[in-house]
């Protein structure tokens, strides 16, 4: 057994253990929403939409069942070409709390979703702003429980993911590795790195929104959720990631293909911001190869290694599984798939290579627009 093989396998086991320890400990910081809702002033819900005819009806129907006493709902249409506007108008006609704003798309220098949210805020008057994606559906107590979490944590921004409505392999093959990466650069309470923001659902105090510069300060941002939470944190606000998955579902990631496309979109956009498309593609390509190796090597060492290298491979495999298990448990999904964590890491590497290839070819389209 060569010295290089021993050192390399030991380094892989150590790296996997360190990453797993960080992920597991970080999830222990995330508390569930309080059991009892709270009143905390007027809440203005802003929903950006573009060609969302398959989901917007359920989103609005659930928001209209909210038990919070002072609520307004503003839907901002970003130049939809399907039946989105027609469906929203039905809710406008049925409920005076719902309003529709139409735009012709973002001006130069603005990302479409960011511009839509900026326009929506300008039409609201709430003490709190709640940004939700159109593919979410909310339990009746969601708004009140988000306000209760803000009071409990003395927070200016509360954010939560939504749980899937259909379990699928995209969560443990793609989203679990993404979560490990996220917690290496961001934290649930904004105490290190960036602050965590989940686009599914972000509640922010209006005064904190204004102090951070609002969406105008992030006009061209594609990774808008993390950037927004970080801006609020940097302006002196307190941010918190909470577990609200018992009160919020998201159907936008209900298939492996949907998860792949959504993740690739975000990765291509993020890569372009590294230093331009060419450098971004190079970084994504390198990251893809590293992740493939990070996943495949523990399996090879565990199955074909001998002595110390096999033990190190098994240790790396167990650590990677522990990291993925903590994510799946947090999402209230089966943790049995975490045993295949090395496969997930390798699959995520392939996704990075796909994103790198898309960047080289000129970008990726999302609902007809280049997302870079």
Report on the structure:
The protein is an alpha/beta fold and 372 residues long. It has twelve helices and 14 strands. It folds into two domains: 107 residues, no CATH class; 201 residues, Spore Coat Polysaccharide Biosynthesis Protein SpsA, Chain A (Alpha-Beta Complex).
CATH-defined architecture of the largest domain: Alpha-Beta Complex
Largest sheet properties: 7 strands, mixed
Structural classification? alpha/beta
- The helicity comes to 40-55%
Classified by CATH, the class of the largest domain is Alpha Beta
Unreliable residue stretches: none
At the fourth level of CATH, the homologous superfamily of the largest domain is Spore Coat Polysaccharide Biosynthesis Protein SpsA, Chain A
Radius of gyration: 21 Å
Number of helices: 12
Percentage beta strand: 5-15%
For the record, the count of structural domains works out to: 2
Q: Would you tell me the overall average pLDDT?
A: 92
What topology, given as strand order, has the largest sheet? 3-2-1-4-10-6-11
Order of helices and strands: HEHEHEHEEHEEHEEEHHEEHHHHEE
State the end-to-end CA separation: 47 Å
Q: What name does CATH use for the topology of the largest domain?
A: Spore Coat Polysaccharide Biosynthesis Protein SpsA, Chain A
């Amino acid at each position: 057994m060569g010295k290089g093989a021993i050192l390399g396998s030991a380094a892989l086991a150590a790296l996997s253990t360190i990453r797993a320890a960080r992920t597991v400990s970080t999830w222990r910081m995330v508390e569930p929403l309080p059991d009892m809702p709270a009143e905390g002033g007027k809440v203005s819900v802003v929903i950006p939409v573009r060609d969302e005819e398959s989901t917007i009806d359920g989103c609005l129907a659930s928001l209209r069942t909210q038990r919070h006493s002072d609520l307004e709902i503003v839907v901002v249409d970003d130049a939809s070409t399907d039946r989105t506007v027609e469906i929203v108008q039905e809710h406008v006609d049925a409920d005076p709390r719902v309003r529709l704003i139409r735009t012709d798309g973002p001006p130069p220098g603005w990302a479409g979703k960011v511009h839509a949210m900026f326009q929506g805020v300008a039409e609201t008057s709430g003490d709190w702003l709640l940004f939700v994606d159109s593919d979410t559906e909310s339990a009746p107590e969601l708004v009140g429980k988000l306000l209760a979490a803000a009071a409990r944590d003395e927070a200016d921004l509360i954010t939560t993911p939504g749980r899937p409505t259909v379990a699928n392999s995209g969560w443990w093959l793609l989203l679990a590795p993404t979560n490990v990466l996220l917690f290496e650069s961001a934290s649930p309470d904004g105490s290190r790195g960036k602050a965590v923001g989940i686009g599914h659902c972000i509640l922010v105090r209006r005064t904190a929104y204004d102090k951070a510069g609002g969406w105008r300060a992030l006009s061209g941002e594609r990774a808008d959720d993390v950037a927004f939470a970080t801006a609020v944190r940097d302006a002196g606000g307190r941010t918190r990631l909470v577990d609200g998955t018992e009160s919020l579902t998201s159907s936008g990631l209900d298939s492996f293909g949907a998860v792949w496309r959504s993740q690739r979109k975000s990765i291509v956009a993020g890569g372009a911001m590294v230093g331009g498309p060419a450098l971004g593609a190079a970084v994504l390509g390198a990251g893809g190869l590293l992740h493939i190796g990070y996943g495949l090597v523990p399996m090879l060492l565990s199955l074909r290694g001998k002595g110390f290298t096999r033990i190190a491979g098994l240790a790396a495999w167990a650590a990677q599984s522990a990291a993925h298990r903590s994510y799946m448990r947090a999402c209230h999904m089966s943790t049995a798939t975490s045993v295949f964590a090395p496969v997930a890491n390798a699959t995520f590497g392939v996704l990075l290579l796909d994103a790198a290839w898309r960047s080289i070819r000129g970008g990726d389209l999302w609902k007809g627009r280049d997302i870079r």
